[in-house]
Write a structure and sequence with these properties.
329 residues, alpha/beta, Nucleotidyltransferase, domain 5, 2 domains, five-stranded mixed β-sheet, 10 strands, binds 5'-O-[(R)-(carboxyoxy)(hydroxy)phosphoryl]adenosine, binds zinc ion
Length: 329
Amino acid sequence: MVRVLGIETSCDETAAAIVVDGRTIESNVVYSQDDVHRQTGGVVPETASRLHLRTIVPVLERALGEAGRDWGDLDAIAVTNGPGLAGSLLVGLNTAKAMAFARDVPFLGVNHLEGHVYANWLVEGVEPRFPLVALIVSGGHTDLVVMHGHGEYRRLGRTLDDAAGEAFDKAARMLQLGYPGGPAIQRAAVGADPTRYELPRAWLKGTRDFSFSGLKTAMLRTVRQAGDAIDPADLAASFQEAIVDVLATKTIEAARDHGATSIALAGGVAANTALRARMEKLADLPVLIPPVRLCTDNAAMIAAAGHFRYEAGERSALDLDIFPVLPIA
Ligand code: KG4
Ligand code: ZN
């Protein structure tokens, strides 16, 4: 039995979790800074790192407490060392290093995006199998990758401009729906007409890449032209539909072409109910979707990804650095 402590502070969630054998969650503590960042309509990096500093120790203690474990019970510490906000990443990485050194526990740096993919290993009764095509859709990234084994990624496509989550956040701001934008758009779109406003889809045929900047511009134009006559619910629904349409269609095409045995959704936008429903409807192979609390930033996914790297014999040195920009492949 291998027990890993995961630590995640790459953006605006301070999180710690304990996972056994990369599959079983013993505790999963997430302290979200949303309430603070809502006041500025987005994450201010300096504020985020200060809050991480204040909360990391209590969050760690709670993760150990809820699992009923002590430092001596840990086989490894896995920590996000990129991509993310530099000041935020440093808090988690330095905490992990300090504890690894003080308690003589091996530690490993984990790519945050890899963590998102490994949320799929934390779902009870699901055994992800390779080759697997994963769509990673978060606030900062939109990547389509194929995995032929643990830790083996080949990037098939990525966004050329905005990330899917970023597009949701910007659209919500235009519609004055609040922060974070994804859940706000989803709420506003319930029961609304997704065909009311015609919005563009960038198919970028012949590639697996994505682009959402044209959609953003079209949204802005629609809001400006319609003025007070705008129906925010229908526009939110039309926007969500445009994003879901492209994400689902291109992911399923890629899975088919690469002979995938399953598709995995990952990242905050994978929490979107319209995306989840569309993927399940269109795909003729199993679609793995973690529960919402494991889609958005958490440390259990970092512990799970770290587990498989630990099992493969990987360890990080104490001079490991942060990488604000760190592609998955
Ligand atoms: O993965 P995540 O928690 O943090 C990053 O690594 O970026 O993703 C956050 C993003 C935000 O842009 C948020 O608006 C989006 O995920 N998001 C959603 C939903 N829940 C979170 N987007 C669409 N629908 C949702 N239900
Ligand atoms: Zn994330």
